[in-house]
Amino acid sequence: MAQSPSSLPCEHDPSKEVTLRVGIVQSDPQLGEVEGNLGRCLARLDEAAAAGCSLVVFPECALSGYVFADAEAATRAAVKVSGPETDALGETCARLGIHCVVGLLELDGAQLRNTAVLLGPGGILGRYRKSHIACIGVDCWTTPGDDEYEVFETPIGRIGLQICYDWRFPEVTRVLALSGADIVAHPTNSPVAARDLADFVPRARATENAVYFLMANRVGTEAGTTFFGRSQIVDPLGNVLAVADDAHASLIVAEVDVELARRKTKEPGDGGYAVRLFADRRPELYGPVTAEIPAGGR
To answer: What predicted TM-score, i.e. pTM, was given to this entire model?
Structure first.
């Protein structure tokens, strides 16, 4: 469950150092081909485990594809969070001793949800339903989630989840960081129209919150929409540790030091100065961030 800010381990503790290897799968899911897409995800988990990864992040809607023509077609490609597809992913995680985050199109009763699931060797550890929805692709027919943002405690660190358009709302990553996240996994299906955002948003979200930001985008073209790739692993100082290209399915890998994300007092570079990202906050001045939008406001 999410932690309160007062309980956060904000400073370095050598006894709790956790270094691990993380991977991002930049995939090209085929629209509506759930079984085939699942098989390719399982194969990538084997590849990532062979590369030494403890955590692997897949893109948004990795099992279904994204640019559906109508709600009926999208519903046919939707799956249950607890179903044969997540069972297969969980069994593979158990066999490999690995964790993963997978974006899927969820069938929630009569509703469609854009969902990310965190799995480990013991099965499903957490779920997040995309809370900010723009009418693009399948999100024209999904229902936004309204649960509180949650951080999931795992043996490899505290992991928060968000999806695609959520990155345009810095409050999401900030709440996850204040709730104790070491790593924020960000599955996305970002089209070329948003290409320039990849040059600065992942670095901004990572450095302003001192978290690892793992952006897993897809490649390929669906119904005239092309996706730009550029999947990234960014550290808490805003350094890009690994980045994929714009066009090819691939696996990128980097080493992360979880304890670096827990040191909220940073001393960048060699200079004699420090920033205290949490201690220097002024919440009493931030009221408008959560104020209701006036009627007719934009």
So the answer is: 0.92
